[in-house]
Write a structure and sequence with these properties.
Blueprint: E1 6-10, H1 16-22, H2 25-33, E2 40-44, E3 59-62, H3 74-88, E4 93-96, H4 98-106, E5 110-113, E6 119-127, E7 143-150, E8 152-156, E9 162-166, E10 174-178, E11 181-184, H5 192-201, H6 203-208, H7 213-218, H8 224-237
Parallel strand pairs: 1-2, 1-3, 3-4, 4-11
Antiparallel strand pairs: 5-8, 6-7, 6-9, 9-10, 10-11
Helix pairs in contact: 3-4
Length: 244
């Protein structure tokens, strides 16, 4: 029986109104990477799905969530243990937002709440000097726009990890943990429409924080470089894959 090479480790799901209009997280990743959803194995760990045994012949994308890593929910702790096992066999891993933080936590780093309450909108991510020699991240421009929405952050990277990019509010936007494992705090899978809808949905929360929701919405743009990082990562490991 054919096993999909790409696994989406789904750690959460958008609010129902967002799902109805824009689909679930696997739909977003499927569209971003140009691979039909039927050719991807989706494992809803937040819903109790069991992960397959780590396999270096397959690639896993660990998604964002509406949970917090510091809650240490049972499914999250099980996924953290799976990440450690996957790293032990050099399975390719790409973490996004919650997945980024969970990878850092699982491998010995620390996660905490941001000092600035949250980082949200389409914001500039800047490469660090260490990124210049990275075979994947080093192909990106020195700075590029990316979709961000998070309240927690990697406050300390695991020992031996390389921090490759940051933003004004977060010093850990891209982290490399080894030859086959990278994570991003930003969302390479977001579309402009979905990002704007989620921002508008939180307008009262942002207003209470003194933020201008309309200004955030107006600043949301396409983020091709952020998406290219994900598709380039996949292209390294998935046979026959050609980024769109």
């Amino acid at each position: 029986m054919h096993q999909p090479q790409i696994i989406i480790v789904q750690t959460g799901t958008p609010p129902e109104d967002i799902r109805q209009q824009y689909g679930d997280l696997p739909d977003w990743f499927s569209q971003a990477i140009g691979v039909p959803l039927k050719e991807i194995l989706v494992v809803r760990v937040f819903d109790g799905d069991e992960l397959p045994a780590p396999d270096p012949r397959r690639l896993a994308i660990i998604t964002g969530s509406w949970a917090m890593v510091t809650e240490k929910l049972p499914w999250s702790e099980k996924t953290a243990a799976w990440i450690r096992s996957a790293m032990a066999v050099s399975m390719p891993l790409f973490g996004v937002c919650y997945g980024h933080q969970l990878m850092a936590y699982a491998l010995g780093g620390e996660v905490r709440y941001l000092d600035s309450v949250r980082e949200t909108g389409c914001l500039s991510v800047s490469l660090r000097e260490a990124a210049k020699n990275d075979p994947l991240v080093g192909t990106l421009p020195d700075s590029f726009p990316a979709h961000l929405t998070h309240m927690q952050t990697v406050s300390r990277a695991p020992q031996g990890a390389k921090v490759l990019a940051d933003s004004a509010a977060d010093g850990h936007q891209i982290v490399r943990y080894g030859p086959n494992a990278v994570s991003t705090q930003f969302h390479p899978e977001f579309t402009v429409a979905a990002a704007r809808a989620m921002t508008a949905r939180n307008s009262e929360i942002f207003a209470a924080e003194g933020r201008d929701t309309q200004a955030i919405i107006d600043g949301i743009t396409q983020t091709p470089e952020a998406t290219r990082l994900l598709t380039a990562f996949i292209a390294q490991y998935v046979a026959g894959y050609r980024p769109q």
